[in-house]
Amino acid sequence: FAQLKTLETIRQQAIYNLKLKKELQASIKNIQEILNERTQRLKLHDNYFLTGNTAIEIEIEEILFTDKEHYKEFDELYGQSTSEEYRLLQQKINHEESESHTGRFINTKIRLLVCCDFCGKYRCIYSDISLNKNDTETIIQYLENISYSCRSPLLPDEHLLSNQLYICQDITCDLPIERNYYSCRIKDVNLCYWCRAEDGILDPSNELKSQFKFIYPLCISCNANGREWSTRAPIVFKSKK
């Protein structure tokens, strides 16, 4: 270690020097154990965090190089036209839309909204039947006393309404607001699709309005950060015979 000044040079030399590699692994072992122990103390919704063993080189190789036919080198794609088809965020949005088409997560079944304490976005609470006044008050009171986060179940199994109310647990904090929100009857204000901001909502251009039936709100801040208008249902003009 004495002759190597940076961690990068140590890593590079460890590739060819087995003794140095073992010394490097031994030097960070105590730190790894401390991090594991501290992480296992953390809790989220009364559940302790779990830690796993460090991946060995063979496992890393399998992760990185198993599917070479699917992933191409950067040089092969540079300058080529690409699409959003395999972009992870777009895949999640597409999944949300496919779930809506099944009839389970649709705007007419939205009864209430809950706000994620981490990302601050509203998530829709669904029910196949309408809630009466007592049930509505019960669930509102319950939600006021918990800290909800995306991907969490809405209610514990023992709750009286656990079999009646449900929420889409596939939605993560990095996803925008559910599109069903914008067409449900309990929608209060037009929130930015990407960040839920109420102020600074832009007005889509007339050209965009002429191309799509649904254009989801976009705020000035998200637009400045590279977000684009999210749209649905292109308007198709029939050619005159």
From TrEMBL:
Designated name of the protein: 14333_t:CDS:1
